[in-house]
Molybdenum ABC transporter ATP-binding protein ModC (Grimontia kaedaensis), 368 residues
Amino acid sequence: MITLTLNVDHKPFKLSVDESIPSSGITAIFGRSGAGKTSLINAVSGLVAPQSGRITLGDKVLFDSDAKIDLAPEHRRIGYVFQEARLFPHMSVEKNLSYGQPNEDKAKFGEVIQLLGIEDLLKRHPSALSGGEKQRVAIGRALLSEPELLIMDEPTASLDGPRKQELIQYLLRLATSLKIPVLYVSHSLDEILQIADNMLILNEGQVVANGPLLEVWGSAPMRPWLSTREQSALVTAKLIGHHPIYGMTQLDLEGETIWVTKVDDAKGSMLRLRIFANDISIVKSRPTDTSIRNILPAVIEEVCRAECDENASGYCQVVLRIGNQRLLANITQWAVDDLHLLQGDSVFVQLKGVSITKGDLAQENKNF
Ligand SMILES: Nc1ncnc2c1ncn2[C@@H]1O[C@H](COP(=O)(O)OP(=O)(O)OP(=O)(O)O)[C@@H](O)[C@H]1O
């Protein structure tokens, strides 16, 4: 567990945090510009000293104002990857990588360069690397310093679209291999959906949400970030097999079947699915003659939450529960009235579209 209790006072801006974060997985730090994301990670890494507070990483106390503990950044065992790679320009990639490695662990060096796909770049200098390659080297250098925490501050920010996507694929490989926690600052919700396990949202120096991504995604502080068209729920489902004839994969969501376009993940993999509120319709009895493959029983948990904007568009949001997971549906107020949809009703949801945002959630891998 990482505990973050801290107050940073840059008058007039004040950052005030009292949270804990799991000691494994990727925690995305999200919020608008000036919300305090960089101030938070700078306090954790020791670049900024909070006025008061206590920051711990497992059993290790990094900062404690009462006990007058303030470990220097170099003693915190934190790997830092910035928006720009910040490699030493006069050193080869190989030298850049080994620079911060405390002991010459060749096996580990080999593992890291292979994971990040930088084996062929070792003899080059940073000036001969693309932006994405530089970032991969910077990540490798941070990992080889044997950190107990990795902080990435918008590592894809300086990259163009295709390079961003390429780096994300490497980050995904990393995510399944790393056994240390990662704090990942990002402005991109798409990126967060692909790689994060947890999410902490900052607003004007205060934490407005913190927890597993699936929970935070469905929470009230997320709503202002998503337009009606983007409103969606995240669920996890298990891959159980493939259709014998059609190119479809069968998933299990709380004992119910969902069919998605064929994916290559192994049987038993846990996949994260994003289901848009506009892609769900509600019926009271199970339809038979329909082109829609995914029809699941659900219970209405809430009708017309705060988003219900009957005056403006006539649409409102219905929260539905399938086992322990929730879906959102945007439907018209007219349909709600016509079907007499009420909290607690058993209905069926028809899913017109399902996208997979992250595969292999439970994959076990090497340890470094
Ligand atoms: N050393 C400082 N002295 C005074 N104010 C500061 C200092 N560092 C940051 N701030 C202010 O604190 C607020 C939060 O800044 P911070 O860089 O943490 O935000 P952020 O969420 O990382 O923003 P961005 O996404 O734009 O990087 C801003 O209003 C900023 O001007």
